[in-house]
Amino acid sequence: MSIDWASLGQVFGISLVATVGLVGVFTLGIVGHSARGANGTPSALGRLGAFTCYALCLAAVAYGIYIIAA
Predict the structure, then answer these.
(1) Which member of 3, 23, 32, 44 has the greatest number of CB atoms within 10 A?
(2) 60 and 22 Cβ atoms separated by less than 8 Å
(3) Which is nearest to 29 in space by CA: 21, 37, 18?
(4) What is the pTM assigned to this prediction?
(5) What whole-number distance in Å separates Cα of residue 11 and Cα of residue 19?
């Protein structure tokens, strides 16, 4: 049995970048969702950014499931 170390390294690197990126986008969503305006109420721009980040995360997960199921 022979292991293709270059391919294994590529899979590891892409998985690492995708995971860190997805967690980073989700974290930005949490930060945007907790953003407060001057009077202490939730910021509309923060909510829009948060929901955009959550939508990107949902799209990435759905694409991953599509790749696995196809």
Answers:
(1) 32
(2) yes
(3) 21
(4) 0.82
(5) 12
H or E stretch including 42?
none
CA separation for the pair 68, 15 (Å, rounded): 14
Cα 60 to Cα 21: distance, rounded to the nearest angstrom: 10
Instruction: In whole angstroms, give the CA distance from residue 13 to residue 34.
Output: 32
Q: Is the pLDDT of residue 34 over 80?
A: yes
The domain spans of the chain are 21-69
| pLDDT tens, position by position, 49-64 | 999 999 999 999 999 9
| Residue 25 near residue 53, CB atoms below 8 Å | yes
Tokens of 70: 């196809």
Residues 56, 6: Cα–Cα separation, whole Å: 30
4 phi, psi to nearest 5 deg? -85, 95
